[in-house]
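User: Hey, my collaborator sent me this sequence without any context and asked if I could get a structure. I don't really work with proteins. Can you help?
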Amino acid sequence: LPSSAWLIYGLSIGIIGLLIWKYTDDIKMTATILGVGLMTLLALGLLIYSLLNLTCKLLPSMSLIWRFGLQGLLRNSRTSVSQILAFSITLVAMVLSFTVRTDLIDNWQKQLPDNAPNHFALNIFPDQQAAFQQELQQQHIDGSRFYPVVKGRLVEINHTPVQQIVIKDTQGDNATHRELSLTWTKELPEENKIVAGNWWNNQQTGLVSVEQKLADSLKIKPGDLLTFTVGSQQINATVASIRELRWDTMKPNFYMIFSPGTLDAYPSTFITSFYLPETQKNVLNTLVKKYPGTTILEVDLILKQFKTILTQLTEAINYLLYFALMAGFTVLFAAVYATLDNRIYEGALMRTLGANRSLLRKTHIIEFLALGLISGLLAVLISEAIIYALYTQVMHMDYRPSLYLWPVIPVAGALFVGIAGCWGVRHVLNKSPLRVLREL
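Assistant: No problem. I've predicted the 3D structure and written it out in structure-token form, which is a compact way to encode the shape of the chain:
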């Protein structure tokens, strides 16, 4: 590459790195994102280059028109690789934007069980808990268990300050920089599974069960001694078990569950969740009037507002992506015009040797359709891989491939790039072969 190209690429990477660093304020994370991004681009570039080389080996078995068409793509393989990468990444961003806006939240809601709780009631006073529960039963409202809640902060693990153990920007870091909702219960809650240690019996006190991911982040194991602050007081508890749980049940879940009797000396409130159909929304007014100190979260309304904000955000992002797509076409036109003289000369030679305008037009169509088709196929592969990771690793949902993307994106890429490319080389067909040869 010429020195000017290295300068441009270096400035681009530097600006991207600066933006990431300003957003994350973490130089290590910035370096990781840039490193992984560059390695991914390099791997994709090598993959595309390998596919082009494989296509080159298959040329002798193809018809004359296909050989001429694909040779235009293979002759400048470095330029073709950069163009395919540019179009693919832009298409990936557009596909992800569309998928997150339309499918992700809807699919997550569909995976929830029927009549899954869509409201949470917080800060229910102990002397009102029985009446609140009876009110729900009288209204025939399905609710989950009532759990007592005490606010406390984890400060030590085995007498070592937790800030000396925690790793920055991990789940443990997030959990130790705020108060946790602590609860107690005799029975293991539904959708909780013991993965290490044992659940307690009714007589044991001073024990705690820890959620698995938090335990892994803080390297907590059964038998460890945890120290919490509740208000101005400290309390010690021995880890009895590690629990695996599902956070998407729309029921109260807790990082820390204590054995009964451990937190009795501390003031508490209650929390529960319940399902309320749209036709019974007026019940909320009754609950709020009777229990003014209770906070009720309408999860379904929050999701609707979140989806609206997400739609507006992705629409704004899409406008930027449209500009990126236009920039991709600009790069395509620049590459076409850089080789336009050679294309005109080749076209003149081919027409002198007997090729007609129709043959030249078909070779151009094949060249740019192939460029767009490969870009679209690569975009679908990358998009599906990212969506799979989002579904399985982030949202913990069952992954279902978006089958409609496989024909739509490659065909759309082939059409747009094909039309733009053929328009860019239209002068090749209009030049007289005799005039071109005289100008040599």
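In plain terms: The longest helix spans residues 299-338. You can pass these tokens on to your collaborator as they are.
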